[in-house]
Amino acid sequence: MTFTHTLGALAAAALLAAPPAWAQAGAKLKVGFMLPYTGTYAALGSAIENGFRLYVQEQGGKLAGREIEFLKVDDESDPSKATDNVNKLIKRDQVDVIIGTVHSGVAMAMAKAARESNTLLIVPNAGADAVTGPMCAPNIFRSSFSNWQPAYAMGDVAAKRGHKKAITITWKYAAGDESVAGFKEAFEKGGGQVVKQLNLPFPNVEFQALLTEIAAAKPDAVYTFFAGGGAVKFVKDYAAAGLNKTIPLYGAGFLTDGTLEAQGDAAQGLLTTLHYADGLNTPRDNAFRLAYAKAFKLQPDVYAVQGYDAAQMLGVGLNAVKGDVSKKAEFGAALKAAKIDSPRGPFTIAKNNNPVQDFYLRKVEGKENKSIGIAVKALADPGRGCKL
Ligand code: PHB
Residue 364: inside a domain, yes or no? Predict the structure, then answer.
């Protein structure tokens, strides 16, 4: 070997051994929140951010040894602005990871941009089935649920409770459509029938005409997907119309999560299914709730848990790649091998990067969604159309 070859080899070896540029410079990890900070889902966005920040704070402000810089975009739950908004984080701010969002329509545009730019994306709420279905990708993960999951669990519960004819009512967009489809799949498998599907545009809350239609049709049960401000109004209107006395109302648990303070008496006794509940009374959940209440002077809800767990998932993946987000395959492999120690109870990540988790049956008692048991254990999204 010649002298110059030796030098070249030494230089190459030194380069290989050297830590990446960001590590040498001690660069901060750029985390971009794309969440709704205004509109019907505003409270959900802030709970997610709170939960995420709480976990990071518990780790001393760092994940995998890297300090964190937060950037924020308000997506307004508006799909028409979603591509421009997500590109503020990807192209302008050049974030290392995006945490977002709540609304399924916005999340699908984010997933497309994340796929095209190979940016790490962790979805801390939006259930769009496509994100862990046909649009699934090695760099896209979810800390929450697919729309199919809680809905399927409730369809199963409603059928087992002996209901035969159900009407569904929801917002006409991906989350509502997919929630109704999941409910219908399990309910009809259990011998029930969805006899009518009622819709209104997101985020409208003019429910009166549709409630009149339900009252006239007299089904055995009503299934619904609403969340945030819309859920508050729907539960109140359902009770004001007197329907809570005559036709049992079931929902994906978003109907009553983070909303009970505002719904008051109208929500009492409602049954919902969700991957989180009050009264779990595990050491893990108790510690989380105490820390959250102390930090934010608020009670946590499912959104806070999903934000907290998005940070936990990011931490697990980053630890495996020593903070180097470019190693997407190793990052994903670590998550699939992990058990996430969530306040909701431990969960795993399936091949399609969606949580496999228990769904609780909850009953509203006072200001709480009390767990009254597990509706479906370790429920995995079917991941239809995902080729991972
Ligand atoms: C959704 O759009 O996927 C969505 C929004 C709010 C929720 C749940 C799902 O609470």
Answer: no
